[in-house]
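Progress note, sequence design subtask.
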């Protein structure tokens, strides 16, 4: 545990230790989040009261947080929440931590849905519920259904829908088993950020992702990396309404394969780049 320590020294200790495993900007951001969320200490507090001594209870809590961070545990799992599309979401190791690029997928879907009256939406693989909750919040006329195979993930997603005051119909369904599709209706929009990382890439990924986030939501077999996209293409032929659209996040190295596959299956499909100029989205609709 930390001995009695003034605020500025404690803050410096965090930056120095986290700087051993994270880039400078990232260690600064993680430190800011922990101090704000766990100790109610803002940047202005550091400027105004650098010699402030924190209570022992707070020091002990920050000790534990730093120990967890040094084991590469994501800061979002330590605080128990994160922000997505200007909304606060609860997260736990049962769900993926929402990413900024997924906000771009949501933005594309919302723009499409706002032009429709009472559109029906299906989100496949909800995780934290960030996609369906953000869609419903920003396109309130939409009727949103969201599915996931994980009961633990659905529990978190339900809590996030309630805390953000939206109504989403969550269902526990294993989408890869086609016999479950008959429980689902017709939809104007299908949205998904499915597992798409080949297992072989685990060795090249950061420990905070591989060691802590749910592998079931990240990885697919090396020999069949498009498995979810193939199922979505088959499902949409039966469940996508006329003039409907599919919005999918993809691996940047597989976007062309996903797009080409949908085109071969009779869809009009295009690749959309994210703000970092990476091929991260494929948007498709059935050719009529």
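Output:
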């Amino acid at each position: 545990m930390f001995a009695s320590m003034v605020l500025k020294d404690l803050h410096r200790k965090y930056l120095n230790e986290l700087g051993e495993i994270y880039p400078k900007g990232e260690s600064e951001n993680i430190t800011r989040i922990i101090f704000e969320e766990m100790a109610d200490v803002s940047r202005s507090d550091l400027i105004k009261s650098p010699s402030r001594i924190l209570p022992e209870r707070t020091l002990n809590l920050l000790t534990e947080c730093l120990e967890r961070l040094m084991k590469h545990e994501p800061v979002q799992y330590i605080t128990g929440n994160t922000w997505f599309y200007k909304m606060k979401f609860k997260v736990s190791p049962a769900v993926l931590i929402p990413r900024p690029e997924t906000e771009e997928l949501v933005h594309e879907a919302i723009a499409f849905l706002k032009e429709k009256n009472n559109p029906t939406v299906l989100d496949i693989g909800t995780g934290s519920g960030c996609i369906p909750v953000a869609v419903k919040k920003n396109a309130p006329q939409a009727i949103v259904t969201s599915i996931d195979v994980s009961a633990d993930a659905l529990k978190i997603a339900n809590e996030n829908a309630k805390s953000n005051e939206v109504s989403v119909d969550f269902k526990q369904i294993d989408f890869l088993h086609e016999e479950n599709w008959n429980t689902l209706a017709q939809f104007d929009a299908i949205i998904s950020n499915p597992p798409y990382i080949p297992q072989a890439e685990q060795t090249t990924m950061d420990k905070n992702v591989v060691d802590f986030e749910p592998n079931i939501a990240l990885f697919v077999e090396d020999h069949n990396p498009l498995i979810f996209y193939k199922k979505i293409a088959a499902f949409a032929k039966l469940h996508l309404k006329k003039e409907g659209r599919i919005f999918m996040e993809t691996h940047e190295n597989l976007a062309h394969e996903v797009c080409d596959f949908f085109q071969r299956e009779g869809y009009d499909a295009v690749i959309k780049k994210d703000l970092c100029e990476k091929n991260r989205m494929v948007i498709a609709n059935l050719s009529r």
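The chain has two domains: 7-71, 92-286. Work on this subtask will continue into the next period as scheduled.
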